[in-house]
Amino acid sequence: MATSPRPTQPWQLSATELAAAVRAREISSTELVRSCLERVEETNPRLNALVDLRPEEALEEARRADERTLSGAELGPLHGVPVSIKINTEQRGYATSNGIPALAHRPAEGDAACVTALRTAGAVPLGRSNSPAFSFRWFSTNELHGRTLNPWDAERTPGGSSGGAAASLAAGMTPLAQGNDIGGSIRFPAACCGVVGVRPTVGRISDWAPPAYADTPAGPVQLDFPPTVHSCAVQGPLARTVADARLALHAMTTPDLRDSAGVPAVPLRPRPAGPARVLLVRGNGTVKNHSAVDRALDRAAAHLADAGHAVEEVAELPLLAEAARLWALLITEDIRPMLPVVHQLGGDDIRTALEGHFAAAAELWGERPDLETYINGWARRATLVTRLQELLGGDRILLTPVCAEPPFEQDADITDRDRALQLFPAMWPMTAVPVLGFPAVTVPVRVENGLPFSVQLIGGRFEEDLVLDAAQAVEDRSEVPRLWD
C-alpha cells in the first residue's frame, strides 16, 4: 500500500504492531483499548458500524490482559489486541440479535468457537459489528440497529453482511474484526471498505456455536440451520493489512469436531518451489465488467507478474460460472422453509430483499425447482469441487474480480426490482466460492472516483498461506490510501 505518515495514535497501528508492542510492554492493552474507544466515539456516531458497545467491560478485559502480561505468563498471538464480533455470532452475555428485535433480549450463554479462539489468542472483544437482518443482504441495515455507512462514500454500501466489521476497520475503530461468509459476507464488505477479507477453507475455523433461540408468541424456538450453512458458511477475519489477516487467521484456526464440517487437523501442504502460478479469470461469460473493475484486475495482474508470478489470462472459467448458478439453487431452496420465520420476525427490508433474491433465482432455475433438481445440484457440486482442486493443485491460484460492479448504491436490492435482478449476476465471484468451499482473499488494489477497488484470489483447499502470499505481493505494490491514517 502507499506510504503513509507514521501513526501517532495507538488505534492507527496494525494488529501485528500492536501485538508486538503489548508483548514488549511498550503499550498496555488498557491504553490500546482506551485509544480505540476514543476513536469509536469520534467516528461511530456517523458510520454506525459498531453496536451494543460496553466500554467498561472492554476495559476490564484489557485490565485482565495487562495483569497476565505482567505475570510473565505465556501470551497468545493477539494478546491485548481489540477485535469486533459480529451481531450474528454468539458472544457470552450478548444477544445474537442478527439485527432482529425479537432476538435482542436473550443473551448468549456461551461463546461461538471462533470467539473462544480469539479470546484464547488474547484478543479483547470491543463492540459488536452491525449486519443486515438475518445477515442475508449485501447491505448492512436492520430495524434494530439502523444503517451502517461506508467510510469512503455514504451513498454506497459498506457491503454485507459483515458491513459493520469492514466499516469499523476502515475508520480505525478496531484493528481486527470477526465475520462470516456464505455468499461474500466477509470478502465483499472488505472490498467495499478497502480492507482485507479472508474466507478460509470450510472446516478450518470452527463454525460451532451454542444453540440460538428466537422468542415467538408460542414461546422460545430453537433456530436450526439448513445444509448450505453447514457446508458453505465459514467464520473468518477481516483486517487492515494482509499480515494482520494472516495473524488472525492462524489464531482463529480451530479444528473442532462439534462442527459438522470441521476437520480434526489442518493438512500440512507442501509449498511450491517458487511463486504460485496465477490464472486470471476476468468474467463469467454473461456479465460485462465495469471498466474500473477491469483496471483493478490489470493492475493486480501486473503486480503479481512483478513479484515473479506467471500470470495467464482466460476470458472465463465455466466451472466457476456453474458454481455461482448452483449457489442460487442450493441457497435459495434451503432458505425457502425459513421464509415463515423471516416474515414473522423480519422487517420490510429483508422481506423485499428476499423477494428479489427469489426472483433472480427463478430466472435461473424456475419458480419451484423439484427435489430431483436440488439433489442433482448437490451431486454436481461435488464434481466441481474435485475439478477445481485438480486445476489448482498446490501451486496455482485464481485471480478474479470481487464483483462486476463498483460497490453498490445503498439499498440497490430493495428500491427497484430491475436493479435488484442485476446484482445477482454481478456477484458471481462472491457466490461461486462458498459452494465449492475453497479459500479466498480480497485485497484492495486502487482507488478510483473516491471508491476502493479490490480483487479476489482463490486457492486450493487449505492453501490459505499460498493465497495470502500473493495477496501480500499485491498489497506491497498497490497505492491505496489508508483512511485510518
What report would you give on this structure?
The structure is a single chain. The chain is of the alpha/beta class. It has helices at residues 15-23, 29-47, 55-71, 113-120, 163-170, 187-193, 227-232, 242-252, 291-306, 318-335, 339-345, 348-365, 371-392, 412-415, 417-426, 428-436, 464-477; strands at residues 50-51, 82-86, 124-129, 141-142, 146-147, 176-181, 196-199, 213-216, 219-222, 234-239, 277-283, 311-316, 396-401, 440-448, 451-458. The chain starts with 14 loop residues before the first helix and ends in an 8-residue tail after the last helix.
Radius of gyration: 21 Å
Cα separation of the termini: 12 Å
Biggest pleated-sheet summary: 11 strands, mixed
Helical content band: 40-55%
Low-confidence stretches: none
Number of helices: 17
Structural class given helices, strands, pairing? alpha/beta
Structure characteristics:
42% helix; two-stranded antiparallel ribbon; 11-stranded mixed sheet; 485 residues; 15 strands; alpha/beta
What is shown here, in short?
The protein is of the alpha/beta class and 485 residues long. The protein has helices at residues 15-23, 29-47, 55-71, 113-120, 163-170, 187-193, 227-232, 242-252, 291-306, 318-335, 339-345, 348-365, 371-392, 412-415, 417-426, 428-436, 464-477; strands at 50-51, 82-86, 124-129, 141-142, 146-147, 176-181, 196-199, 213-216, 219-222, 234-239, 277-283, 311-316, 396-401, 440-448, 451-458.
Fold topology:
Layout: H1 15-23, H2 29-47, E1 50-51, H3 55-71, E2 82-86, H4 113-120, E3 124-129, E4 141-142, E5 146-147, H5 163-170, E6 176-181, H6 187-193, E7 196-199, E8 213-216, E9 219-222, H7 227-232, E10 234-239, H8 242-252, E11 277-283, H9 291-306, E12 311-316, H10 318-335, H11 339-345, H12 348-365, H13 371-392, E13 396-401, H14 412-415, H15 417-426, H16 428-436, E14 440-448, E15 451-458, H17 464-477
Helix pairs in contact: 2-3, 5-6, 9-17, 10-12, 10-13, 10-16, 12-15
